[in-house]
Amino acid sequence: MRKNVVVIAAAGVLMLGLSAVAGAADPKGEFVGSEKCKACHSVEYKSWKDSWHSKMVQPKKTGILKEVVEKWATDGTEEGPTTGNVTKAKFKLEDVKYVVGSRWKQRFLVANDQTGGMQFLNRQYNRYTNKWEKYGNANDWSTNCGTCHTTGYRILEYDEKFGKHGRTVKDSYSEMGVGCESCHGPGNKHIKSKKADKKKTIFNPANTDIQAQSKVCGYCHIRIENEKFMTAQGNPREDLPAPKIGDSYKAGDDWTKWYPEQAIIPGVHADQPASKEYVGDLKGLFKLDDHAKANGIFEEAKHHQQYQGFLQSKHYLNGSISCITCHSPHAGKGKLQKVRKDACAKCHDASYTVEKYMPNTGQTAGNLFMRTHTFGKNPRKGGAGAGDMGPPNYYE
To answer: Quick check: 201 and 190 in contact, CB under 8 A?
Structure first.
């Protein structure tokens, strides 16, 4: 594995002259936002609005969990969030601007006055245990997670002279969360085109080949260490910005070919197999025990790496299904949204269930796991997952 260089500096020195201001705007005018899609695609919009994609990042007012507010000071054992991970400044509940996640766990974004961006607080809330857990991501949120937590993300300014790998100085995005254009590409041309040309101006995963369909989902459902682009703090990013400054990922782009020598994506790049142990943030990425070796399948051991698991499966290798065979991010006119747990029965007998062949192996919080997508014939026993919890209780 390539050697990582982590820049360590005092906060005052690190942020000198930095103005990493991100906002919901598209300087190129390519992305229009999901609200624009609603006018013509009301069925799709409504079902997307009810999906977890739309709830990835939410304003505190509408997205914070009831239990979080009630237990903000303490869960009875552990202290709640108090400190910004980057600046080490003290914050209160009223300082939270946005929340990230709500189904499995929830994290909290506050201002970073040194950069103009947002930073995480030092605790996350685990919905399964109803407890606070330590969370140490000490990078500006948009410069570490922006390509997948927002829509239409792009780096606008990059300081290549900072440290040995540079830092993201300025970025932007068109929409918070995973909007319609995350999977369908920018919609400006689509909106402006004549009726006969509309289908030609938007990307529809259903009209591409099996592997290309999954690659759209794979852009975000992977775990990566980026050694080409760094965060505002000069650390390797955990997402995959477009190779050219000022550009944004567009659905259908082959991101697997972007700067492969500088992006560590185990299980995706041929020289970075899932069977290998990695270091740093990628350590423990896959199950590498005797059970995995005997099966020749290395299940996901962390969250948001479903694509890296799916690439190992016979389902993918024989080209029989893609992600959207079993998942649908929204309904359509005359088409119901797919029920994931019923997907196996379309091709297999009743003995094939997601509970058996997709055990919860990918840890997302303490004692809480997400389903593997390797579909091994001899599956291991999984841990607790979403099925062991009820729906989130939002404060409002």
So the answer is: yes
